[in-house]
Design goal:
Largest sheet: 2 strands, antiparallel
Order of helices and strands: HHEEHHH
Shape: elongated
Strand content: 5-15%
Helix content: 55-70%
Mean pLDDT: 92
Low-confidence stretches: none
C-alpha cells in the first residue's frame, strides 16, 4: 500500500486472487489456496543478523520468528511483483504468487539466497545471543 490507499491495495489483492482462481482451475486449486501456498513457500526459516564482537562484525545466522516469517514473505512477494514487467499490478502480483506457489520467481529466489547466506555463515552461530 502506498500513501494510505487501502481501497486500491484491496482491489489489487482481490483481483490477483481472482486471476489465480482462473489459472488454478486446471490444477483443481482455488486462488486463496494458491495465495497461502505462495506465502508458505517464501517464508524464511533462517536469516543472518549483524553482531559486533570485539571490533569485528559477524553475520550470525538466526531463526526467524513466525510473525517475521510472514511479514518478510509478503514483503518479498510484493517487492518482486513491483519489479516485474507485466502491464498491471494485478497481473504482476498474480504471476508472482503463481511462481512462488510453484517454487520459482524472484521472491522464492530471495528466500533461497537468505538460506544460503545463513548456511555459509554457520561457523559464527556460536555468537548467537
Amino acid at each position: 500500500m502506498w500513501d494510505g490507499k487501502k481501497t486500491l491495495a484491496e482491489r489489487i489483492v482481490y483481483g490477483a486472487i481472482e486471476k489465480l482462481d482462473e489459472r488454478g482451475k486446471a490444477e483443481g486449486m482455488k486462488g486463496i489456496d494458491i495465495f497461502y501456498k505462495a506465502i508458505e513457500n517464501v517464508k524464511p526459516l533462517l536469516e543472518v543478523r549483524s553482531r559486533r564482537v570485539g571490533g569485528a562484525t559477524y553475520q550470525v545466522p538466526m531463526e526467524v520468528r513466525p510473525e517475521r516469517q510472514q511479514t518478510l514473505s509478503i514483503r518479498w512477494i510484493v517487492e518482486a511483483a513491483r519489479n516485474r514487467n507485466e502491464r498491471t499490478m494485478i497481473e504482476r502480483l498474480a504471476n508472482e504468487l503463481w511462481d512462488a506457489a510453484h517454487e520459482r520467481g524472484a521472491a522464492f529466489k530471495k528466500k533461497e539466497d537468505t538460506h544460503r547466506m545463513a548456511e555459509a555463515n554457520k561457523a559464527f552461530a556460536h555468537y548467537r545471543w
